Amino acid sequence: MAASNVSRKYALITGATSGFGYEFAKLFAKDGYNLVLVARNDEKLQELAADLTQTFLIEVLPIAKDLFNPSAAAEIYSETQAKGIVIDALVNNAGQGTYGLFAEYDSDRDVDMIQLNITSLVCLTKLYLKEMIARNEGKILQVASLLGKYPTPYMSVYAASKAFVVIFTEGLINELKGTQVTVTALLPGPSDTDFFHKAGAEETVTYKEEDLSNPAVVARDGFEALMNGESRIVSGIKNKVFAVMSGVMPDSALASTMEKKMRPSGEQEGRSHITHGPSIEERDRIDAATGNTDGDYQEHEDHVHTKE
Length: 308
Prior knowledge:
Keywords: Oxidoreductase. InterPro entries: NAD(P)-bd_dom_sf (IPR036291), SDR_fam (IPR002347). The protein is α/β, with parallel strands linked by helices. The protein has one domain (about 5-290): NAD(P)-binding Rossmann-like Domain (Rossmann fold), CATH 3.40.50.720. The protein contains eleven helices and seven strands. It has helices at about 20-30, 40-55, 70-80, 105-135, 155-175, 195-200, 205-210, 215-225, 235-250, 250-260, 275-290, and strands at about 10-15, 35-40, 60-65, 85-90, 140-145, 180-185, 230-235. A seven-stranded parallel beta sheet has the order 3-2-1-4-5-6-7, with helices on both faces. The chain is globular, with a radius of gyration of 19 Å.
């Protein structure tokens, strides 16, 4: 480790190779943080680490772990412990959804989503939060979703998992009163990432017909809220309006609204691809490696799921 970097703080970011995670990595690097970057693909992690190291003159530790695996969170923590790295900012960004009627797709996808979106997030939070409390210093960003405010047909489990993140974060904020440790929930709306592709949701009204948020803007909003110690940030004016609506409309009406947004689009034209470069690269790599152009993948051999 370079001597000039010894005193720098470290940020740990999951899901770091595309989407919001990639943008978070650049923001923290620009702010002078050393990084621990977590994602599934080691080759892409190494490329990103080399680029950030050269551009920002920081230390970057890439850790290739699959957070669908129950042991991954503890393994990540053990690796940072073994290297004597103190995590000053934790960004729980990794997450996935699955599109379809709950009763019709493989239940293994629900188990995987719960493991990734809830269990791994909770485990990483607990492991690093204990250290932050002991130091009375630290920041945690939990990437939730605007869908965490809405019952969402066709993505019922995903929305519920993000509602957990929102409520979990609020509980922690209350528990941490009187400390210098802060927890922030970021609630993005539909964004120009590979999320819809991995979820198998590219034919929805939302994807085909609506504007998508720029991942760089969403990450900047989350980063600034985290640094300011805010409890929650909804990125984007339109999304802020929807968030307010969720507090005044009955759940049945919210579910009906979301059903219209998540049903298959009748438009023959419409969006057919995303524009966020790192997310496009990840999609192309996935498709080339697996030959599967329809939905999610997992790289470990004993776990391969596709959209039903």
